[in-house]
Give the backbone structure.
Amino acid sequence: MKMTWRWYGVGNDDITLDHIRQIPGVMGAVWSLHDKVAGEVWEMERIQEVADVLASKNFSPAVVESVNVHDDIKMGLPSRDHYIDIYIDTIRKLAKVGVKVICYNFMPVFDWTRTDLYKEHPDGSNALFYEKALVEGATPKSIVDRILEGAGEKTMPGWEPERLSHLEQLFEGYKDITEDVLFENLKYFLEKIIPVCEEEDVKMAIHPDDPPWPIFGLPRIIRSREHIQKFLSLVDSPYNGLTLCTGSLGPNKLNDIPSIIREFGSRIHFAHVRNVKVFENGDFIETSHRACDGDVDIIEVMKAYHDIGFEGYMRPDHGRHLWGEEKNCRPGYGLYDRAMGVMYLLGVWDTLERGVK
Ligand SMILES: [Mn+2]
């Protein structure tokens, strides 16, 4: 297992590479060109620039999260071929600097969705929170406003104000897209890109839907064992793989994550490890990584990875915001709780390595 850390780039993240290299065991920075919108060309000079900065601090550039997929590809519009060509161009360029895994998602309109960015825990820390009834009774626009207002000046992946300003148009575009059609459009995309990935030795790793159920009538197709199995069979190549996110699958308690890891382990290229506490009414809040703090048994998750001999990349996913850091950090991406998360995950891992059961 190779431990990594999501980093938003020079001038775009208060947590610097110098901070990150003091966290034990972190070998790579998970990066992206965060100013690029879906479908935009990634210039080689920009890619090289990030690779050089990472190399200067001894970090691997092997994981990119994300290269976003244009809505025309998800909707299956005639213009998709143009955007797929651009995607292929980006894959080839990223391969040149040593990128081995690209994380992406295929969620229509909304990426991850929450109702509160800073919900307080009893201990005074705060974290991302999802209130089920509120989303069920809300309009998409009101959730967008709520999230963007909460984020203030910070840009957040998946929540680009420009794109979301065309909300009605986006919903109109998806109105006839069922789960089956979305799967077909994903298959079309994969059939074009996976041969290129095989040639370039870059593995694609789809991120599950977060939360793992349909919202606002939009289809969501990566949210259970059955969906994952269907997804992997769309194109049966090791290069068509998963980002297994415990925090995304976790809010549905029917998802047995350790058994999903054991079943599909060889296709998991990137592990997001995060804990969530799920309430009886379906609400959930993100917690520390410690197994007993939430409903995802992180120890069993790590044991499953250890048992399958997982050699892919891992990162602590979101963390809580501690000691007032929410004033400066991106929601979910503070320093302290994620750093403690790394130590917890490595603590469990190191113990397993010693054979202590
Ligand atoms: Mn994740």
User: Anything to note?
Assistant: The CA atoms of residues 2 and 313 lie 5 Å apart. The first strand starts at residue 2 and ends at 6.
